[in-house]
């Protein structure tokens, strides 16, 4: 059992997370966990959870909560057997957990060890302590105890952050903490200790003007907000900076144990790309990523986090932003490598070449130019040796496969690895323990905020509906939204509202989402890199789906259109799902967003002949006509409602006859789900010379709609 109180109150065991129930029940559990192995009386529990103004029936509530917690914490315990975990002792209860199983106790122990160690050892302990946090302490719990602990622990957390930064500055690592200090000062502008530390860090980094400006800023703020002058420490620091006091430059820098001191001029690698402004939203995803890393580190496991998703969804941007938020914790550096898994060249970086890049960044000698002459295992072993004692953040972007990533993984637990890929890389999760997060398109409000920030002040309140439609048309893809916003900005002679309308009303949005002269910023190009990497049958299935006009498609319909068995069709569809060109919408149902569907339709027109497309559409119409006819007959107990399909494709007809609907209720549900597809398919028939199939399909749809009402059903039965 592991208990987490430094964030949402959670408990997890061999069977996964435990449902701890209501906020008060969580609060009672948190009190017992905070005092693990100690007896907490009923009176203490009541005061902690309900306070002085508790209801008269509060004791029965305590009994109820304890009983529920026992059932949830020990689901395999026989109903009348005594609990081994939450035991009744005298007039109270005790949670039989070792304090090391509760993150609050681990946090306190690590703070204490940090104060005893000092120096770089203290930094490592404080890093580990702060990594335990994943939100506001005692989240989801209520009551006086939770509120008091929340305040106490928040102050401890902040003090630990300040102590860690102060030690890093004393160790001569002042430059790497300025970014973190700037973010903390933004959040807590009146915290004088933070200002003092940032002034010292600025001064030691040769930024005397910034240090003096920092003092002026905080002095003005303190006088305006509180009517007081800065503290003696701040004023003393200010005077030292004014006179360039060498005492303020002195550091207690020390080499890391077991490592040679860094020579002058040798810097830790800092390869992270810049965060592309304006980075917008993704707070939930960032919190989830922080939680994944913290959980791995709390379990003393290697942290490998995989971010995957569709082309253009913002995987790299999110990974880079997250890496910058983590960077201050990795004093030995940050490595970034684009593995070109999906790119214009179509040539993924071989593992040996990738290893050469990483080893060179760490100061290792380059390998021969010919990758074929290098033993992959030896080079991977050399790399693992180099990083074994280092605290590194490694970002492996745009990966093609788990096999490409695996040799690049460190052997120890001191590094954190972030991987981005369009593919699922299931092997990396199954075999290497990577924690996966699948990224989706931006929510409407975040997408609108992003576009407003790019377009600027010309966007007014009256443009809200138009921006919302633009976000929908771009499927929430950040790359598409940025290109669309740039199009709106550069639309000469048009008002903002007219530019937005022109964008969303265009016949071919893919053409409009094309950044001139930059293939990496063209939605069509981004999609094409994924398409080119598909196996032949999956690529054929993708083009086939472009001829299906509906938002969703069933496995049976896809198999009929492809003229393949259900098993073969499922394999091709699964390949598209793994490549994030398609999503699973339910059991044997699939969907792709509108931009992707438009691209598939383009490909079908460009790569498949008209007679082939005509055959595919006729198979689709034959399938839907036969299936709808059979479903309607089953709903009303008739063998056949229409004449035979005639010259429709026989295999598609056969698939429809056995498409799995076996009762009137199932038939009615099938019709409701497939109705949009039936109407859309019927509308496609004339374009491909299948007027008669379209007419018959429309007739079946009309009969179903008529049968929806009781009167219509009576007419059908008659």
Q: Averaging pLDDT over every residue, what do you get?
A: 84
Helical content stands at 40-55%
Continuous helix count: 31
End-to-end Cα distance, whole Å, is 66 Å
Mass-distribution shape? globular
User: What percent strand?
Assistant: 5-15%
CATH homologous superfamily assignment of the largest domain: Winged helix-like DNA-binding domain superfamily/Winged helix DNA-binding domain
Please state the structural category. alpha/beta
CATH architecture of the largest domain: Orthogonal Bundle
**CATH class membership of the largest domain:** Mainly Alpha
The low-pLDDT segments are 253-266, 643-648, 712-718
Characterize the largest beta sheet: strand count, sense, and whether it forms a barrel: 5 strands, parallel
What can you tell me about this protein's structure?
There is one protein chain. This protein has six domains: about 1-165, Winged helix-like DNA-binding domain superfamily/Winged helix DNA-binding domain (Arc Repressor Mutant, subunit A, Orthogonal Bundle); about 170-255, Tetratricopeptide repeat domain (Serine Threonine Protein Phosphatase 5, Tetratricopeptide repeat), CATH 1.25.40.10; about 285-370 and about 375-440, P-loop containing nucleotide triphosphate hydrolases (Rossmann fold), CATH 3.40.50; about 445-525, no CATH class; about 535-610, Arc Repressor Mutant, subunit A (Orthogonal Bundle); about 610-718, no CATH class. It contains 31 helices and 14 strands. The strands form four sheets. A five-stranded parallel sheet has the order 8-9-10-7-11, with helices on both faces. Helix 15 links the parallel strand 9 and strand 10 (about 415-420). Helix 19 packs across helix 20 (about 495-505). The N and C termini lie far apart (about 65 Å). The model is unreliable at about 255-265, about 645-650 and about 710-718 (pLDDT under 50).
């Amino acid at each position: 059992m592991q208990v987490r109180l430094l964030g949402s109150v959670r408990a997890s065991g061999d069977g996964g997370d435990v449902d701890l129930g209501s906020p008060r029940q969580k609060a009672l559990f948190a009190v017992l966990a905070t005092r693990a192995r100690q007896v907490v009386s009923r009176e203490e529990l009541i005061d902690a959870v309900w306070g002085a103004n508790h209801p008269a029936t509060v004791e029965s509530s305590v009994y109820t909560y304890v009983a529920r917690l026992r059932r949830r914490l020990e689901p395999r315990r026989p109903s009348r057997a005594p609990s081994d975990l939450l035991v009744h002792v005298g007039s109270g209860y005790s949670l039989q957990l070792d304090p090391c199983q509760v993150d609050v106790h681990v946090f306190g122990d690590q703070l204490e060890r940090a104060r005893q160690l000092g120096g770089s050892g203290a930094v490592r302990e404080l890093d580990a302590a702060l990594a335990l946090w994943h939100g506001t302490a005692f989240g989801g719990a209520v009551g006086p105890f939770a509120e008091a602990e929340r305040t106490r622990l928040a102050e401890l957390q902040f003090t630990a952050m300040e102590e860690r930064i102060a030690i890093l500055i004393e160790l001569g690592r002042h430059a790497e903490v300025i970014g973190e200090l700037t973010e903390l000062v933004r959040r807590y502008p009146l915290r004088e200790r933070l200002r003092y530390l940032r002034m010292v860090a600025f001064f030691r980094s040769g930024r005397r003007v910034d240090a003096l400006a920092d003092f002026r800023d905080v002095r003005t703020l303190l006088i305006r907000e509180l009517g007081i002058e800065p503290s003696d420490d701040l004023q003393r620091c200010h005077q030292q900076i004014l006179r360039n006091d060498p005492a303020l430059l002195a550091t207690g820098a020390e080499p890391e144990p077991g490592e040679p001191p860094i020579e002058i001029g040798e810097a830790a690698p800092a390869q992270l790309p810049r965060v592309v402004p304006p980075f917008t939203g993704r707070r939930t995803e960032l919190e989830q990523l922080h939680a994944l890393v913290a959980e791995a580190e709390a379990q003393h496991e290697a942290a490998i986090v995989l971010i995957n998703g569709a082309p253009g969804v913002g995987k790299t941007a999110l990974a880079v932003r997250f890496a910058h938020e983590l960077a201050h914790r990795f004093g030995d550096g940050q490595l970034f490598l684009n593995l070109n898994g999906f790119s214009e060249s179509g040539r993924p970086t071989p593992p040996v070449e990738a290893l050469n890049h990483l080893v060179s960044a760490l100061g290792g000698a380059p390998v021969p130019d010919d990758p074929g002459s290098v033993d992959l295992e030896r080079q991977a072993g050399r790399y693992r040796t180099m990083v074994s004692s280092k605290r590194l953040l490694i970002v492996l972007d745009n990966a093609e496969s788990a096999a490409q990533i695996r040799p690049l993984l460190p052997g120890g637990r001191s590094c954190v690895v972030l991987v981005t890929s369009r593919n699922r890389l299931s092997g990396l999760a199954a075999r290497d323990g990577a924690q996966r997060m699948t990224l989706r398109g931006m929510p409407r409000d975040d997408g609108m905020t992003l576009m407003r920030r790019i377009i600027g002040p010309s966007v007014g309140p009256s443009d809200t509906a138009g921006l919302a439609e633009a976000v929908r048309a771009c499927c929430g893809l950040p790359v598409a939204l940025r290109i669309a916003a740039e199009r709106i900005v550069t639309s000469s002679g048009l008002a903002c509202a007219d530019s937005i309308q022109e964008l969303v009303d265009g016949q071919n949005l893919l053409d409009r989402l094309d950044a001139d002269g930059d293939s990496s910023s063209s939605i069509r190009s981004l999609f094409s890199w994924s398409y080119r990497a598909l196996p032949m049958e999956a690529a054929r299935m993708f083009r086939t789906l472009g001829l299906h006009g509906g938002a969703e498609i069933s496995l049976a319909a896809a198999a009929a259109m492809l003229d393949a068995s259900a098993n073969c069709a499922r394999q091709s569809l699964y390949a598209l799902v793994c490549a994030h060109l398609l999503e699973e919408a339910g059991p044997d149902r699939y969907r792709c967003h509108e931009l992707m569907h438009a691209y598939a339709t383009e490909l079908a027109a460009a790569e498949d002949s008209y007679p082939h497309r005509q055959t595919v559409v006729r198979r689709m119409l034959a399938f839907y006509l036969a299936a709808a006819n059979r479903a309607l007959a089953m709903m009303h107990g008739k063998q056949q409602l229409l004449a035979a399909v005639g010259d429709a494709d026989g295999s598609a007809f056969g698939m429809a006859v056995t498409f799995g609907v076996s009762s009137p209720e199932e038939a009615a549900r099938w019709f409701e789900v497939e109705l949009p597809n039936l109407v859309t398919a019927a509308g496609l028939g004339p374009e491909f010379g299948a007027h008669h199939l379209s007419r018959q399909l429309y007739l079946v749809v009309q009969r179903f709609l008529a049968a929806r009402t009781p009167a219509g059903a009576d007419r059908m039965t008659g």
